[in-house]
């Protein structure tokens, strides 16, 4: 059999999208696998540990004939292989151990994320960065400082995961399909996150009309402790299926220019009365990355909770600045 026609590299070819996932651990590998299954892009998995990204990538590629997806997945230690990425998901770092707060991770992970960002930007200056590494609010700040990218291209994943957790708890409590439940969580990604019951609905009906205040409070509490609950159970790491799915939902919104409204950690520019700090707020995610912030009218209580969240974010930023890395 002979082939004829155009060859790869010919300008008449449409280029597939390229996504790099830095860190091929639990969250990175899960995200890569889900993104490949959705055929969002060809995927490069990068990790410092030799052989692991290569092995996982090959394993995923070998699953593609069975699952029927058409996406190349490759593994590497070399940033040159990430060149020209449209979107980069950063999960590199160490994960939380039992009893360790997200903030304990700070100094190690800031150094890792600063180095990763420098290398990524050198090879993909036009990419959109999606940050996953904890403490999340400190990592998006680090990536923004190091990359010098506009706020539209440095986005943190937290709210999608936190609201997915809240959705699952609401569906369980009311014994209704997860498909009909939506939920909103604002603020920082930490113990000060702000679940918003009145913007959380079941088939359009706000939660306060469906559940008594004490049950709503219990759900909000469990949501805020959602990460710790999994850490307690696993004992040797933190959640990865839901976090992987959450960051891929954001990646899909961007790569398919869907203009989805999702809660993301973005650098605020006066919205919600906050200037220059990353907070979790509802955003429009499309081809340009973060294309707009939606400002909700908050009640006095919600404003207080957002204020607490902001203080926690400010503390993290002060700690990052004190490391004197940039
Ligand atoms: O809601 C959220 N944002 C989060 C965040 C939800 C879940 C997990 N969250 C955080 O993501 C977690 O606290 C960690 O900071 C990261 C990654 O979690 P994961 O569970 O995937 O950790 P692993 O399995 O330890 O994987 C981390 C990988 C591992 O393979 C390391 O070898 C690699 O990161 N690593 C690096 N890769 C590239 N470059 C450098 N410098 C590097 N250092 C470590």
Structure overview:
With 326 residues, the protein is an alpha/beta fold. Helices cover 41% and strands 19% of the residues. It contains nine helices and 14 strands. It has helices spanning 26-37, 52-67, 106-123, 136-147, 159-174, 213-224, 226-234, 241-255, 300-322, and strands at residues 18-22, 42-46, 73-76, 87-90, 128-131, 154-156, 181-182, 185-186, 194-195, 201-202, 205-206, 260-269, 275-286, 289-293. Strands 3-2-1-4-5-6 form a six-stranded parallel β-sheet, with helices on both faces. The protein has a three-stranded antiparallel β-sheet with strand order 7-10-11, with helices on one face. Strands 12-13-14 form a three-stranded antiparallel β-sheet. Strand 12 and strand 13 (275-286) form a beta hairpin. Helix 4 (136-147) crosses helix 9 (300-322) and helix 5 (159-174) runs antiparallel to helix 6 (213-224). The model has no long low-confidence stretch (mean pLDDT 94). Bound molecules: 1,4,5,6-tetrahydronicotinamide adenine dinucleotide. 1,4,5,6-tetrahydronicotinamide adenine dinucleotide binds next to helix 1 and helix 3. 1,4,5,6-tetrahydronicotinamide adenine dinucleotide (TXD) binds next to helix 1 and helix 3.
Write the layout of secondary structure elements.
Elements (H helix, E strand, L loop, with lengths): L17 E5 L3 H12 L4 E5 L5 H16 L5 E4 L10 E4 L15 H18 L4 E4 L4 H12 L6 E3 L2 H16 L6 E2 L2 E2 L7 E2 L5 E2 L2 E2 L6 H12 L1 H9 L6 H15 L4 E10 L5 E12 L2 E5 L6 H23 L4
Parallel strand pairs: 1-2, 1-4, 2-3, 4-5, 5-6
Antiparallel strand pairs: 7-10, 8-9, 10-11, 12-13, 13-14
Helix pairs in contact: 1-2, 1-8, 3-4, 4-9, 5-6, 5-8
The site of 1,4,5,6-tetrahydronicotinamide adenine dinucleotide has 34 residues, from α1 and α3.
């Amino acid at each position: 059999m002979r082939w004829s026609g155009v060859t790869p590299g010919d300008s008449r070819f449409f280029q597939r999208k390229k996504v790099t996932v830095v860190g091929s651990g639990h969250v990175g590998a899960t995200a890569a696998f889900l993104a490949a299954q959705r055929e969002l892009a060809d995927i490069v998995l990068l990790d410092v540990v030799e052989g692991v990204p290569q092995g996982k990538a090959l394993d995923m590629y070998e699953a593609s004939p069975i699952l029927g997806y058409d996406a190349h997945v490759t593994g590497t230690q070399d940033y040159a292989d990430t060149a020209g990425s449209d979107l980069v998901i950063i999960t590199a770092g160490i994960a939380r151990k039992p009893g360790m707060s997200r903030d304990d991770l700070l100094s190690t992970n800031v150094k890792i994320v600063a180095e990763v960002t420098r290398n990524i930007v050198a090879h993909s200056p036009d990419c959109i960065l999606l940050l996953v590494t904890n403490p999340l609010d400190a990592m998006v700040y680090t990536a923004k400082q190091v990359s010098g990218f506009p706020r539209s291209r440095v986005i943190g994943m937290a709210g999608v995961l936190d609201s997915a957790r809240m959705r699952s708890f609401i569906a369980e409590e009311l014994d209704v399909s997860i498909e009909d439940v939506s939920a909103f969580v604002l603020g920082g990604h930490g113990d000060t996150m702000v679940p918003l019951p009145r913007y959380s609905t079941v088939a359009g009906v706000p939660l306060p009309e469906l559940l008594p205040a004490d049950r709503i409070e219990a759900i909000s509490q469990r949501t805020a402790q959602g990460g710790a609950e999994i850490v307690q159970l696993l004992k040797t790491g933190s959640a990865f299926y839901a976090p992987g799915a959450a960051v891929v939902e954001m990646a899909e919104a961007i790569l398919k220019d869907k203009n989805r409204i999702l809660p993301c950690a973005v650098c605020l520019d006066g919205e919600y009365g906050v200037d220059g700090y990353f907070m979790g707020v509802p955003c429009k995610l499309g081809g340009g990355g973060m294309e707009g912030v939606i400002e909700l009218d908050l009640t006095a209580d919600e404003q207080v909770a957002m204020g607490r969240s902001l203080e926690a974010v400010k503390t993290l930023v002060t700690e990052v600045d004190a490391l004197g890395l940039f």
